[in-house]
Amino acid sequence: MCGIYAYLGHRNGVKIALDGLHRLEYRGYDSAGLAAIPNGEIVAFREVGKIAELEKAVGDFSANLVIAHTRWATHGKVTRENSHPQFDEKKNCAVILNGIIENYQTLREALRKEGVKFASDTDTEVIPNLVARAYEGDFLRACQQALLLLKGSFAVAIIHKNHPRELVVAANGSPLVIGIGAGETFVSSDPNALIHHTREVIYLADGEIGYIKPEGVELFDATMSQISKKTEKLLHEAEEMSKGQFEHYTLKEIFEQPRTISNAMMSRFFEEWGTVAFDDINLAISDYIAIKRILIVACGTSLHAGYVASYMLEDLARIPTQVEISSEFRYKNPIVPEGTFVIAISQSGETADTLAALRELKAKGAYVLAICNVPGSTIAREASGCLFLRAGAEIGVCSTKAFTSQLVVLTLFTLLLARMRHMSKPEGRKFLQMMEKLPGQAQLVLDQASHIEKIAKKYAQYNDFFFVGRRYMFPTSLEGALKLKEIAYVNANGYAAGEMKHGPIALINENCPTVALACDKVMFEKTLSNLMEIKARHGKVIVVATKKDGLDEIADDYILIPETYDELTPILASIACQLFAYYMARERGAEIDKPRNLAKAVTVE
Ligand code: AGP
Asked: Rounded to an integer, what distance in angstroms lies between the CA atom of residue 416 and that of residue 317?
């Protein structure tokens, strides 16, 4: 979702900024633009579509101060006029924004009454106009005054034609990081896009402003007092961002799972005691023992990981667990009694709704454990503690390897709590031994890619699907359906198999196939009965199971996965569903890595 990249230094900032935009591409965007002040006037380029279009338009234009942006439309259609940078009427000032200005209509109306004419439908355009109106020769002061009027969650970068060597940046609820180089400064919405240039960074906190000049960076807080902040060091390695031999990042990431599953487990097993140790968090045994209730907040795929975890946490650790959709939860007035332990799950660590839920829960005194993939992300930094997925950059918008790593980390966390409560040492050991097999078992599922591709080809023309399962396979069915929706643009409903007869079965006919996740051992027989009901209505059934026994009358097609504990089956069944969605999408000609309308990090509400 919208990406900001800016540069001030001695090199050709246009090239650096365009490279930076490419590194932010994974976030999703529909247009791109940049602006600079080469000869006392603002020069800007804006193009709809890929960054390549912008590169063509820019040609060999160069400048030492550049602000650049990828836009994911929120206010106003995808047009050149609505892309960023946005300007004031006289083009004295240019602004790029990530996020949303909530009170833009009020501000726009007030400016309109003063005679300002707007050239776009964006919320952003009020900002350059506010800066221009407040400007009396002091650029920083004008920006500070304009920023004070804004409500919302945003990150912003501003330039003014009278100050060709100055850049003002600010953050409020949206990430913005300043990279300090040797005589040059970089700004980005994602630290990963800076790491190739510098490891010294400053994260702007809410309300903070950075005033960047060739001599260095000055920082101000929300009350406009100058502050000093130590730089932080980016410790992680620059991510390898190539598709390698694969046609799409999504496919590459699906195939990486044996390794990423193994990474998520690495050095976290405490085999002798049949339990788990996390170096990344600093909690005492008494803190774990004091947990009386767990509350999980997350969105999308991460939410589905949370649902799987809730079954495990209640079943194995016997801790009451509630899962909440962050976007709904943030507007509740949550009850957080003593003993509540919160888990915020977010691959990107930037999801605005989950961040808001985390802040509310911290304000109510809860310990919030984040489960994140991106070091340095806002959620990872603001949480009380963070367990990292170590899955490496996930570039495909569709979350695949991050999901299975989330499940691994959540399983390990459950095991830790279970061992402190009801689970015996031998049981814990057996569980760890079973987990050790997962990377190899994941590979066995991947080895069936061409079989799954054939099935996808057979069903590629169908426009409506059900994914059903029971117990651990219910949240897995939600995730399987989400994959098909988001990358193949196929209507797919994830449903608890036992609920089908309470309404949705009315939709079943020969044109609406069902992907039946019949892998949960405890619920196998019951699932079979539900599938019989679907079969009796002429529904075609693709069964994902660990064995064919008992499925002859039901299955039109099979995908067989290795047998493991029910708690671990979501990992293997999900890989099968990911491959199915991928091949369906490819067959239907969908744009797989960057599906329409979606963004990798959803930094707006
Ligand atoms: C996953 O395939 C989706 N693109 C989406 O549902 C995603 O999981 C959701 O936006 C939450 O993102 P997060 O994990 O980065 O918080």
From this structure: 8
Q: Which atom of ligand 1 is nearest to the CA of 482?
A: 2
Tell me the C-alpha distance between 208 and 413, whole Å: 36
| pLDDT in the model for residue 192 | 83
CA 536 to chain centre: 40
Strands 3-8 and 65-71: antiparallel
**What pLDDT score does 259 carry?**
92
How far are the Cα atoms of 274, 353, 378 from residue 603, in angstroms, in the given order? 39, 8, 11
Angle at 74 between CA 70 and CA 77, to 5 degrees: 85
| Smallest CA separation from ligand 1 atom 7, residue | 300
Q: Distance from the CA of 398 to the center of ligand 1, in angstroms?
A: 7
* Angle, alpha carbons 92-98-103 (nearest 5°): 80
pLDDT of 170 reads 97
At 26 the pLDDT is: 74
Which tokens belong to 229? Answer: 């902040």
- Residues of the chain short of pLDDT 70, as ranges, are 1, 236-241
Tell me, in angstroms, the distance from the centre of ligand 1 to residue 399's CA.
6
Nearest alpha carbon, ligand 1 atom 5: 300
What is the DSSP code (8-state) at residue 74? S
What is the 3-class SS of 156-221, one letter each residue?
EEEEECCCCCCEEEEEEECCCEEEECCCCEEEECCHHHCCCCCCEEEECCCCCEEEEECCEEEEEC
Q: b/e map of 166-203 (b: 16 or more CB within 10 Å)?
A: bbbbbbbbbbbbbbbbeebbbbbbbbbbbbebbbbbbb
Protein residues with CB under 6 Å of any ligand 1 atom: 299-302, 346-348, 351, 354, 397-399, 486, 598, 601-602
Cα of 6 vs centre of ligand 1, distance in Å, is 26
Look at residue 237 in the predicted model and tell me its pLDDT.
60
Per residue in 470-520, pLDDT (tens digit) is 999 999 999 999 999 999 999 999 999 999 989 999 999 999 999 999 998
Catalytic residue numbers read 2, 600
Structure tokens at 506: 């009315």
pLDDT reported for residue 1: 67
How many whole angstroms separate alpha carbon 125 and alpha carbon 94? 9
Could you tell me which of 327, 334, 341 has the C-alpha nearest to residue 295?
341
Under 8 Å between Cβ of 125 and 86:
yes
Phi, psi of 499, rounded to the nearest 5 degrees = -90, -15
Ligand 1 centroid, distance to 298 Cα (angstroms): 9
Q: Alpha-carbon distance 428 to 418, whole Å?
A: 8
Confidence (pLDDT) at 142: 97
User: Which pLDDT value is given to residue 316?
Assistant: 97
What are the tokens at 296? Answer: 């999980």
Distance 567 CA to ligand 1 centre (A): 22
Which of 1, 253, 301, 577 has the most ligand 1 atoms within 8 A of CB, as the residue to mutate? 301
- The pTM of this model reads 0.79
Mutate which of 302, 373, 485 for ligand 1? The one with the most ligand atoms within 8 Å of its CB, which is 302
